[in-house]
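Blinded run. Sample ID left blank on purpose so nobody reads anything into the name before looking at the predicted structure. Input follows.
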Amino acid sequence: MASEGILLGMGNPLLDISSVVDDDFLKKYDIKLNNAILAEDKHLPMYEEMASKGNVEYIAGGATQNSIRVAQWMLQIPGATSYMGSIGKDKFGEEMKKNSTDAGVNVHYYEDEAAPTGTCAVCVVGGERSLIANLSAANCYKSEHLKRPENWKLVEKAKYFYIAGFFLTVSPESIMLVAEHAAANNKEKLVDTNGAGDAFVGGFLSQLVQEKPIEVCVKAGCYAANVIIQRSGCSYPEKPDFN
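Blinded prediction complete.
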């Protein structure tokens, strides 16, 4: 049986701002359909414009955070998962905290004083979408935050750690601290499944932490991925239907 805090993820949190837009919006910001790019200066005003739309949807995103949220949803055990990363002190950061906490994840964000919360614009036109990511505060995580007693307790409590390769360019010292602790206490190994679907990883981890056979872990991953691809962003129903 999975216990509280058994799985800890660390990564780059991005608030997905998803909205249906029109061709004029795409032209205004020079966006091509079915594209995934990093934001340039010309794109920066679009996030506030999308936030002002009535049909906007906020989803706590970023690859690792997506996987942790899906694992939490599959486990259905309050606080079974924890997550750390860097956000800004702004309204998008508050939205991220609310979204992740409502999902049942125990989030301990580092809040950067200068950089705004990382965002990813999800521009939807006729079922097709384009992604424009502005990493911003997600790039600012400091190992000093990890070393704080209330945060290091999450490392000590966890038996499984998930850190995707994206985080290597942000805080390699934090990764080494967790890796050294895991090695010294016989806790599995760090996993980098860059390229695997976030939902598949979350479903897989939800069974791995319960020490289920690998074939069951894979089935859970496939189940979660199948659910997520039929919905907007990395979102899911209230309860999973996986046996």
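Unblinding after everyone has recorded impressions. Residues 191-196 have pLDDT under 50 and may be disordered.
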